[in-house]
Amino acid sequence: MTTSLTRKKANPLVKFLCNLDLLIAALALIILTLITTAGVFKRYVMKDPILWQEEISAFCQVWMVYMGSSVAFRTGSHVAIEMLIDALPEKLQKFMGYVIDMIVLFVLVFLLVKSQAYVAQVFGRSGRPTPILRIPYTYLYGVAPYGCGLMIISYFVSKYAPIFTKSIEVPENEVNEE
Fold first, then answer.
1. Residue 109: which of 75, 153, 168 has the closest Cα?
2. What is the pTM of this model?
3. Which site in 15, 23, 53, 102 is 20 to 30 Å from 41, CA atoms measured?
C-alpha cells in the first residue's frame, strides 16, 4: 500500500494576514504618490495648495517605512555587507551569523521599547492631534513599536522557520493505491 503525501494549500486568511504589512506598505505608497501628484498639480497649476497634503504624506511615509521594513526583513531584502563574513571559515561564518542575529535582536528590541515609551509619553498623554485633520499623533507614530515587533518576528521566522519545517517533495505522477 502506497500513500501519497500532498502539500496543504495555505489558508487564504492566513496568507492575507501574513502579507498585511506588505498590503499596508503598498497602499501607503500608492496614496503618497497620488496625494503628492495631486498636491503638485494643485499648487503649481491651479495656484491653490492642498492644505492637508503634508499630514497625509507624513502618515503614509511613516507607515510605509515601518511596514515595508517588516517585509524587507521577511524577504531578506535589507542591505547586508557579507564580504567579510564570506571570507571567514565556515564554522566561524555560522558563529558570526548568530552574533549578527543577536545584534539585530538587541537593536530591534531597543527600538521597540524606546519607540513605545516615546509614543506613550509624548503623544499618548497629551492626545495631541495634527493641526488640520485633527488625527491623533498616536495613529501616526504608533506604528513604530508594532513595526519593530513585526520586524523581529519577520527576521527570525524567515531565518529559522525553514529549520523547523520540512517541505515534502512528492512526484506529480504518484498515484494513491489502496
1. 153
2. 0.77
3. 23
